[in-house]
Amino acid sequence: VQEEFSLGELAVRFGLTLRGEPGLKVRSVATLSRAESGGLSFLANSRYRRQLESTRATAVLVNAEDEAHCPVAALIHPSPYLAYARIASLLHPTSSPAPGKHPSAVISSSAHIAASANIGPLSVVEDDAEIGDRVTIGPGCIVQHGARVGADSVLVSRVNLYPGVTLGQRCMLHAGAVVGADGFGFAPDAGSWVKVPQVGSVRIGDDVEIGANTTIDRGAIDDTVVENGVKLDNQIQVGHNVVIGAHTAIAACTGISGSTVIGQRCMIGGMVGFAGHLTIADDVVVTGCSLVSASIKKPGSYSSGMPTVETRLWRRMVAHLRRLDGQEK
Amino acid sequence: VQEEFSLGELAVRFGLTLRGEPGLKVRSVATLSRAESGGLSFLANSRYRRQLESTRATAVLVNAEDEAHCPVAALIHPSPYLAYARIASLLHPTSSPAPGKHPSAVISSSAHIAASANIGPLSVVEDDAEIGDRVTIGPGCIVQHGARVGADSVLVSRVNLYPGVTLGQRCMLHAGAVVGADGFGFAPDAGSWVKVPQVGSVRIGDDVEIGANTTIDRGAIDDTVVENGVKLDNQIQVGHNVVIGAHTAIAACTGISGSTVIGQRCMIGGMVGFAGHLTIADDVVVTGCSLVSASIKKPGSYSSGMPTVETRLWRRMVAHLRRLDGQEK
Amino acid sequence: VQEEFSLGELAVRFGLTLRGEPGLKVRSVATLSRAESGGLSFLANSRYRRQLESTRATAVLVNAEDEAHCPVAALIHPSPYLAYARIASLLHPTSSPAPGKHPSAVISSSAHIAASANIGPLSVVEDDAEIGDRVTIGPGCIVQHGARVGADSVLVSRVNLYPGVTLGQRCMLHAGAVVGADGFGFAPDAGSWVKVPQVGSVRIGDDVEIGANTTIDRGAIDDTVVENGVKLDNQIQVGHNVVIGAHTAIAACTGISGSTVIGQRCMIGGMVGFAGHLTIADDVVVTGCSLVSASIKKPGSYSSGMPTVETRLWRRMVAHLRRLDGQEK
Fold it and tell me: B314 contacts in C (CB within 8 Å)?
């Protein structure tokens, strides 16, 4: 049974202006088009006003401009999406497991585990690992020797922390994430390769989220660093000695080659490829599927890639490009 | 020891026309070039006729056009590859493990597990999960609370189903697949990010195959949906609230951003990137490595990207493109 | 406590020319800019000479050309990076776990496990698997029936070998790697798909390294092959029946479609997409984010893709390309 909250209570608690009956109650979030009685929805983009006008939600979070179009109770905030994020956390709270260690977990006697932490079934915590207060180590996770997990962090399931990596507080890591595997370092030796030991580690700040199957390699000598507040989507690859600045968000499938330094508050689209040894300024936006092969020194939005066209037109464009080049030879 | 089948028996069972001795027997599949006595091969593309002409297979599946070039017994079918798929399943049957629960599995007492299901070693089945008839949950899998797996589905190994996701019948999920991790949703708040709870789920239809290390995120509010008969290769990323239409096949490493809707019977190449909030029509083909940044409204084949050339030519093409732009400034 | 080595000892052992005091001792590797007393650094690229000139390392590995710029003891070698790789392995040795089987591992009685091997906690070794001398099977690994692991190989953690795959000697596989999942093979049948059984296997040679969350599919009929000395970074996808020639190195996130054959000693950048059924010559270099849609017959360096520019310029370039095409219609 989900708890109910009155609009008046929400308005007070979250600093919203209410236009409507304060006693009305909501109990879950909903999209504008599917909301029913008891549902709270939001309009984050005026493009979807038509959906607002026909919604059956009990109340909608809107900004002042869209409020006139809201046919039901309106909770007004300059950033309806931000207000939504906060209220959704209230309406749909996540439950933490009770403190304790599942009997099937394999835990070293030299590991330091806070009494308030939960160690899930079939997980492994090796020698000298440190698990902070109220941490959740979900089922199937592996925390190798000397790795540290800061207070209130959650390793959802099947997360793998290699030896010595450190994780800050309030982090969330999703299934299949691997932190601290060897960077890709090999020295050429007469037609074959000699492995370069990867003796650095990975340091991850506070409030970092890491998506499913994302991989972050340990440094070759110094550490790979992910600063506070960074948000990484699924299947991202972070090479050795990369630094990702605070509060940067990166969408899925992006790959960052070794030693590249990305600034703070950047927004990187999905499937972007970064060459190695680059420096990307703060406040840079890179749109999806771009190839970043040189440093970016100024804030702003950057792109590359040719959008899809019909295959027969594409063949002609490719032929053109080749001819263009031919003319210059 | 593999079972043998006579060509006559195969012709009757699979509706094939036999040109050759019905009593000849085959016991395994083989490529045209490596086949030996007892081998059954196929020719799906006339380009490989030369291999047909020198094959030592006992019999070959061909279409009527290629039959004249077959130097050995011919099993004739309009779609030799389809006939091959069916016969290969007969010659190389997969064995299901016997019903039962491995003693090392950690299974909640509130989980509903069919008596005919097999729960493999070191797997986890949490509270209220439902495991259907004849389901195989392989080693190291994690089925979180309330997740449901339909009859005859197979989770090969190390598959991770998050809470509440549902899987239809006869699905096959490969190692490392993650279904139901949080979508990538964060609201900006004065230079940092506030997590948007992802309260939707994932609904997967019948006869869906999901490749190794593929990730399918749960919806932000409504569900992410993968319809019946969809085939997903390895390392695909499916964002929150994506819908993939029935019988669409997607090759490896493709990423689909949030809320994009892909039609039925589409064929999507590998490493294709889809922007978010797009609509792709039914029966669309997208070739590999394309960037789909706008909706596609008509069936047909679509492409983008510049194929590889020698690096020194490529540098000139890039310079050209930059100059083209400069002339317009 | 790390062991110390004198420069004289290192010079003799690794064939280096020493300019400096043979009795000086080093105990760990360090970057030029962060090295302190006891640190050994290297200069692999003259571009970083400025860092050399201000280093506080006890000694630096340099080539003969850079030696004059070294303000501290110099260990001279034609390939400082190669010498560094070897010495770093001496200064930072990895410790192998003692032989034995963790009691939480689930090991078939029909598996053949060398007495000198280590089987880690919560791992699974199925029927008829073969684990060679001094092999390490880390925590959470799954070795399915009949899979073979050659002597001195290491499966770090959570590695998944499907049935029947074979691994050579001295291989290293990182967390989340999946070897031998089904290739992506489906035959069209009136708007839906029939699975084509993938009856081949995967054969991996000696001295192969496979990165975290990389996937290598089993062959459709014949085997997928990775030859000796191949180095694969993280999140690489290798389709069924691909052959990767000896000593080829491939950076992260690259995808290779089915049946493509890559030559020996190639160097493939990150996020490269290979179409299927191609042949790539020996000694080919492909730069990152390229789309390889045709075979490459000659050694050399190949590239594609448009590097990132400011988004507003990019929009104009895309418009140009479309117009170019329009003019030809």
Answer: 302-304
**Do A164 and A181 touch, CB atoms closer than 8 A?**
no
Task: Judge contact between B300 and C294, C-beta under 8 A.
Answer: no
Amino acid at C183: G
CA separation, residue A134 to residues A316, B183, B299, B322 (Å)? 60, 24, 53, 54
Which chains, if any, share at least 3 CB pairs under 8 A with chain C?
Answer: A, B
Q: Which of A85, A311, A322 sits opposite B194 (nearest CB)?
A: A85
Nearest-CA residue of chain C relative to A158?
C158
Rounded Cα gap, residues C3 and C10, in angstroms:
13
Min Cα separation A147/chain B (Å)? 23
Question: Which tokens sit at A174?
Answer: 């999703």
- In which residue are the tokens 């990166």 written? A250
Q: Which residues pair with B232 in a beta bridge?
A: B210, B250
Chain C residues close to A273, C-beta within 8 Å: 253, 270-271, 288-289
- Please give the mean pLDDT across all residues of chain C: 96
Q: Provide the sign of the torsion angle of the four alpha carbons C1, C2, C7, C13, taken in this order.
A: positive
pLDDT of residue A28: 95
Which pLDDT value is given to residue B1? 60
Average pLDDT over residues C158-176: 98
| B325:C306 CB<8 A | no
One of A69, A77, A174, A240 is an active-site residue; which one? A240
**Residue B102, min C-alpha distance to chain C (Å):** 10
Q: Can A174 be counted among the known catalytic residues?
A: no
| Chain segment A11-66, per-residue pLDDT in tens | 999 999 999 999 999 999 999 999 999 999 999 999 999 999 999 999 999 999 99
What's CA A230's distance to the chain center, in Å?
Answer: 7
Name the strands in the sheet holding B136-137, side by side, starting at the edge strand that comes first in the sequence: A309-310, B300-303, B284-286, B267-268, B249-250, B231-232, B209-210, B172-173, B154-155, B136-137, B118-119, B100-101
What's the rounded Cα separation, in Å, for the pair B74 and B62? 7
CA–CA separation, C174 and A216 (whole Å): 12
At C328, the pLDDT band (50, 70, 90 cuts) reads very low
Nearest alpha carbon to residue B311 among A325, C311, C253, C314: A325
Count of C-beta atoms within a 10 Å radius of residue A185: 24
Q: Do C305 and A305 touch (CB under 8 A)?
A: yes
Q: What is the pLDDT of residues A214-228, one digit of tens each?
A: 999 999 999 999 999
Find the CB nearest B302 among A270, A309, A324. Answer: A309
Q: In the numeric block, which tokens belong to residue A256?
A: 């960052």
Average pLDDT over residues A300-315: 94
Contacts of A82 in chain B (CB under 8 A): 187-189, 194
Q: pLDDT per residue over B213-223, tens digit each? A: 999 999 999 99
For residues C267 and B302, what is the distance between their CA atoms, to the nearest angstrom? 30
Q: How confident is the model at residue C1 (pLDDT cuts 50, 70, 90)?
A: low
Cα separation of B87 and A150, whole Å? 55
Residues A305, B304: C-beta atoms closer than 8 Å: yes
What is the complex's ipTM, to 2 decimals?
0.97
| Rounded distance between C-alpha atoms, residue C144 and residue C119, angstroms | 14
Residues of C in contact with B325 (CB under 8 A): 313, 316-317, 320
Note the pLDDT tens digit of each residue in B249-308: 999 999 999 999 999 999 999 999 999 999 999 999 999 999 999 999 999 999 998 899
* Contact state of B234 with C215 under an 8 Å Cβ cutoff: yes
- Give the best residue of C81, C289, C320 to mutate against chain A (max A CB count within 10 A): C289
Residue numbers in chain B where pLDDT is lower than 70: 1, 324-329
- Pick from B4, B51, B50: which is nearest to B27 by CA? B4
